[in-house]
C-alpha cells in the first residue's frame, strides 16, 4: 500500500459524458502527477500539480483538466468522453516538485461505452 | 522531444541475473534516472533511483556510465514474481518545468 488513494476504482460511462477522478496524496506530499495507461500501452504523463499550482504538462487533451485543492487532493476531469479515453488513470504523489520518488495509487479504471 | 528507449521484452529463468538497459540521450544535467516495476492492473512501484555511477539497494542495482546517456537496471537472481513491466523514468527540463517521460517499458518474463 503506497498510501495514495484513488476513487472510484472503476467507472463505466457513455460517450459524451463527463467524469471526475479523485486522488488523495500521502501525508506530506505536495506534488500530484496524473498518468493515463491505455490497454497494452505505457504510462503517458498528463499533468503535474505542486502545492496547488500547475507545474508541468504532458500530452493532456483539451477535454481534460485537473486541479489541486488547498488540502492537496487532486481531481482529474474528463469531458466529452470518447471510446478511446477508456484506460487506467493513475495518480502519483511526491514530496517535492521534481526528482523525488513518486508513489502511485491503485488507479481508476475508466470504461467508456 | 527526447525520449527513452528500452527493449520491448526480455525472457529469463529463475535464478539468473537480468540486465535491462534504457537509453536517454538528451538527459539534462540535473535529471535523475528512476526505475519502476509494474504488475498488471496495479500502479507502478519504485525500484531504484540514481544520478551517476552505481547505486545498489536490497532489490536491484543501477549502473550509469559517465556520459549518463544510458542506464542499466540489474536484477540479481530473478524469481517468477519478478515477471512484470519495468519502466525507466527521466525528467526532462523544458521551459523551466520538468516534463516526465516514461520509457515504453520492458516486459520481463521469468520462466521456471
Topology:
The complex is a heterodimer of chains A (113) and B (112).
Chain A: E1 5-7, E2 10-13, E3 19-24, E4 31-37, E5 44-50, E6 53-57, E7 64-68, E8 74-78, E9 87-94, E10 103-104, E11 108-112
Parallel strand pairs in A: 2-11
Antiparallel strand pairs in A: 1-3, 3-8, 4-5, 4-9, 5-6, 7-8, 9-10, 9-11
Chain B: E1 9-13, E2 18-23, E3 33-38, E4 45-50, E5 53-56, E6 61-64, E7 70-75, E8 84-94, E9 97-102, E10 106-111
Parallel strand pairs in B: 1-10
Antiparallel strand pairs in B: 2-7, 3-4, 3-8, 5-6, 6-7, 8-9, 8-10
Distance N to C terminus of chain A:
31 Å
Largest interface, C-beta within 8 A: A-B, 27 and 24 residues
Give the topology string of chain B: H per helix, E per strand: EEEEEEEEEE
Q: Low-confidence spans of chain A: pLDDT under 50, at least 5 residues?
A: none
Count every helix of chain B, treating DSSP H or I runs of 4 or more residues as helices. Answer: 0
Distance between the termini of chain B: 40 Å
- Rg over CA atoms of chain A: 13 Å
Q: Mean pLDDT score of chain B, rounded?
A: 88
Number of helices of chain A: 0
Share in β-strands of chain A:
over 45%
Low-confidence stretches of chain B: none
Helices and strands of chain A, in order, run as: EEEEEEEEEEE
Amino acid at each position: 500500500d503506497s498510501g495514495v488513494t484513488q476513487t472510484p476504482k472503476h467507472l463505466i460511462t457513455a460517450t459524451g459524458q463527463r467524469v471526475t477522478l479523485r486522488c488523495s496524496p500521502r501525508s506530506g506530499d505536495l506534488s500530484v502527477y496524473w498518468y493515463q495507461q491505455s490497454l497494452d500501452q505505457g504510462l503517458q504523463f498528463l499533468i503535474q500539480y505542486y502545492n496547488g499550482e500547475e507545474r508541468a504538462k504532458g500530452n493532456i487533451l483539451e477535454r481534460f483538466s485537473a486541479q489541486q485543492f488547498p488540502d492537496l487532493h487532486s481531481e482529474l476531469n474528463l469531458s466529452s468522453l470518447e471510446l478511446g479515453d477508456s484506460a487506467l488513470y493513475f495518480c502519483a504523489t511526491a514530496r517535492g516538485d521534481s526528482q523525488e520518488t513518486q508513489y502511485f495509487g491503485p488507479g481508476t479504471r475508466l470504461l467508456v461505452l | 522531444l527526447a525520449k527513452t528507449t528500452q527493449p520491448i521484452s526480455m525472457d529469463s529463468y529463475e535464478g539468473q541475473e537480468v540486465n535491462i538497459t534504457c537509453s536517454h540521450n538528451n538527459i539534462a544535467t540535473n535529471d535523475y534516472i528512476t526505475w519502476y516495476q509494474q504488475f498488471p492492473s496495479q500502479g507502478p512501484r519504485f525500484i531504484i533511483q540514481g544520478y551517476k555511477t552505481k547505486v545498489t539497494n536490497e532489490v536491484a542495482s543501477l549502473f550509469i556510465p559517465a556520459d549518463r546517456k544510458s542506464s542499466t537496471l540489474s536484477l540479481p537472481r530473478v524469481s517468477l514474481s519478478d515477471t512484470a513491466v519495468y519502466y525507466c523514468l527521466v525528467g526532462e527540463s523544458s521551459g523551466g518545468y520538468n516534463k516526465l517521460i516514461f520509457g515504453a517499458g520492458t516486459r520481463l518474463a521469468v520462466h521456471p
